[in-house]
Amino acid sequence: MPSSLPSSPSPSPSPASSASPSSDSSSRTSRPTTGYRDLLRNREFTGLYAGFTLTVAASTLSGFALGTLVDQQTRSPFLTAVSMYGATFATVLGALTLMSVADGNRPRRTIVALQFASLAGVCAQAVPGLPLAARFGLLLMLGFFQSLGTGTRLGLLAEIVPNTAYAPARSLMNITSGGTAILGYAAGAVLLSYLSPHGLFLVAAALTALGLAVVAATVRERSIRLTRRPGLRRTWTTNAELFSHPGRRALLLNLWVPNGLIVGCEALFISYDPGHAGTLLAAGSAGMLLGDLAVGRLLSADGRRRHAFALRLLLAVPFLLFAFHPPLPVVAVAVFLASAGFAATLPLQEQLLDLTPDRVRGQVQGVESAGRMTWQGLGAALAGGLAQYLAPGAAIALVAAVSVAVTLLSRSYVIRAGGS
Hints:
Layout: H1 15-18, H2 21-30, H3 36-40, H4 43-74, H5 77-85, H6 91-97, H7 101-104, H8 107-125, H9 132-160, H10 166-191, H11 197-218, H12 232-244, H13 246-266, H14 269-272, H15 277-298, H16 301-314, H17 328-339, H18 345-354, H19 361-387, H20 392-416
Helix pairs in contact: 4-5, 4-9, 4-10, 4-11, 5-19, 6-9, 6-19, 8-9, 8-11, 9-19, 10-15, 10-18, 13-18, 13-19, 13-20, 15-17, 16-18, 19-20
């Protein structure tokens, strides 16, 4: 570990010990887990958490506004789906080029700068009459900056909280993300009764600015973790090391592909039922919230790993019902139950962290997040493309079936990596 790394709240595992998921797993279960209240007593975590929450709220509103705008102008399921998740395509560019800044630059300064870029992009989306090509260009630009911001934020999180508090911290942030999305979709639907989509973009811009101010006021600067200068070559070197490990490859596959395909299913809700899309999106967010709360707080690290496979199946199987066009209440319950399966990311992320040396945690977590978001964009494009030729319900069921197949076929590789 570089000598410039600041003291963490608790001892960090060495790279050697990080390579052994079984030994680290036993140490995790033998030590007490930090609760949500303990986390919120940490001023820096609270600031990072509040800034993240405001960012999610802004993204939810802006995505809903853009999806509605594109649907009104084009009536195309493909373009509507891509508009809601198109920013995720560009996250892979960040992962492949400049993700090493997550560990190499001053993280607070980096987050603030990227928040400014996001604010400018959301404000630009609020301009009436902006061509769709320009709107999609803005999406790609924001996705690139978003991937760098995520890596930097997660690298900071690993320094701000103790190692034993990492899973509860991620759980709390995931729960908040789900709850904020529920409120965001509900608020977006209500606000669109009084505002145009352009007005909704302005509300999202105000939330982005507030999140920027909170992070700037609460998070302190930290030392650079890398001893080498960050950049393209450093990013490629670390990524090559990341993908050379078979256990990490298996974990990344299961963090990216099943998750992304199901997000593609959700991207078709507007095309499937325009009048009740907000209800379905809110049901999905509620299920995600419940799943993260139950898995993050009620299960130990070993329990999370034992249930990870069942959760990955739960994520996709209920979406098969869409092929039969059941009544809205049945569909909403199916989406709610399926979305609880997103909590499978928690044990997989814990395993990935166990296999990651401290000095590159920010970049590796940034690559994981960028790949997951990129697959969400690919899933939306795949589902939207299928919906051009199939009914939206049939496309949703087909994509969900592919997600189930990937989970079943890759299980043996995850078990070898120390999971289930």
